[in-house]
Every structure is written in structure tokens, then in C-alpha cells.
Amino acid sequence: MTSVSARYLLTLLLLPFSVYSSPDANCQRDFQPAKVHLEMLEGEVLLHTDKSVSQLIKKSRERNLEAGFKRLSGLTLMSFESRFNGKVMAYSEGSGFCADARSVDVEIGFKEFNVYILNRYRPGSCQYRVTKKHEMKHVALYRKVLAEALPELEAAINEAVSSQLPIWAQDITDAREAVSALIKNTVNPLMKRVGEEMKVANAAIDTRTRYRWEQAKCRSW
Questions:
Q1: What 3-state class would DSSP assign to 11?
Q2: What is the mean pLDDT of the chain?
Q3: What's the pLDDT tens digit per position in 113-149?
Q4: Which residues touch 203 (CB under 8 Å, ≥6 apart)?
Q5: Smallest Cα–Cα separation from 202: which of 126, 134, 123?
Q6: Phi and psi of 218, rounded to 5°?
Q7: CA of 170: how far to CAs of 16, 34, 184, in Å?
Q8: Of 100, 124, 131, 195, which is the most exposed, with the fewest CB atoms less than 10 Å away?
Q9: In the predicted model, is pLDDT for residue 174 greater than 80?
Q10: Is the dihedral of CA 183, 184, 187, 190 positive or negative?
Q11: How far apart are CA 37 and CA 191, in angstroms?
Q12: pLDDT in tens, 48-59
């Protein structure tokens, strides 16, 4: 039983952008900064019971991760997902355009959890139940760590929106994309740290002592 996460990758489906400074840029905000709404994506749990030990090891290695245990009985793989929606207004200013956000809606969390239980364990058996319970603890830990980070993430996005907007660019498309990219550049570093915290939290229940204690609950593995 072990949990390995996908390599950290947070994608907001944003295009590359270029923002330029200009001596005639004079972007002024004439309304209150956008209120940020942040929602956590819980992620669907997909349970798989058809894989052998070698197949589970292969899956972990496909992620460039090592399971690290010879008697692998379960595996949890997760992937991050995020979505950004917002109302952005842009208006001409000097030789370019200013852009600001009217609303910012961000969804951050998990696309899915793939939970694998070794195919030799019949559903309902002691080994199956112990393994599934362990893997679901990993799912709960991933969600817990992210949930605890949400207030900091929301505060950081609010600060970025209120202090760094409006923003000026030479092209109206660049101006609009710059607002989205501001959210991305704010969220990414924080989520990278959250990903590291998830690894630490999950490693705490993947010790050999913990495995011996759990496996003692069943006669044969």
C-alpha cells in the first residue's frame, strides 16, 4: 500500500502573453476590485481492482515514481486540476489597452483519484478492506491539505487582483490574457508548495511500522 502523486502540474488553460510598460499608460480603476470566489474541486475516486503487482509498479514508474515496497497491495494516483473564469473589461488607453477584472472565479483541486487494489484480493476480503481503507486515507489527506491551504490561496489572489490591476498592454487580447495570467502566476507557486505538503502528509502513513500494524489485521497477504 502506497500513495504516489502525479508530478505537480497546474494548468489554467492560459495562452502565453506579453505585457509592456508605456510612458503614456494611465490605467485607473473606477470601481471596486473584483471579489474573488475560490472553490475546491474534490475529485472523483475511481476504484480499480484488476491490476497485478507488476502492473501497479509499472504505473508508478510511468510517473517517474518508485513504490519502494516489494509487497505492494494498493496504490493511489491523483492529478490536479484548476479552472479560471472571470469577467474582464478592457478599454483603450494611450497607444494600448487597460484591462481589469469585474469578477474572478477560480476552481482548484483534483481532477480524479485512481485507487488501485491488488487483483488477488477478493472484494470484501480482509486484505481488500484493509487496503481500501488505507488508500482512502490517502485521498482524505490530499483533500485535507488542500482545504487547509484555500484561505491562503484566496487571500493571495485577492491581493494580486487589488494591487496589480488594472494592467496595460499594447494589444487588447494581451491585456485580457494578462489578467488571467496574473491569477496563474499567483496560484502556481503556492500550489507547488501545497503539493510538497501533500507528499509529507501521505508519507506519514506509508511507514514500514504502519504497514506491519495494518497487515497484522489479516492472516495472509
A1: coil
A2: 82
A3: 999 999 999 999 999 999 999 999 999 999 999 999 9
A4: none
A5: 134
A6: -120, 150
A7: 15, 23, 21
A8: 124
A9: yes
A10: negative
A11: 17
A12: 999 999 899 888
For residue 67, what pLDDT is reported? 53
Q: Specify the pTM.
A: 0.80
For residue 49, the SS3 value is: strand
CA 27 → CA 12, 30, 32, 161, distances in Å? 26, 10, 14, 14
Give the pLDDT score at 111: 95
Answer left, alpha or beta for residue 49, where phi above 0 means left and psi between -120 and 50 means alpha: alpha
Omega into 33 within 30° of 0, i.e. cis? no
Rounded CA separation 82/112 (Å): 12
Among 126, 129, 135, 120, CA closest to 46: 135
User: Angle 208-215/126-164 helices, nearest 10 degrees?
Assistant: 140
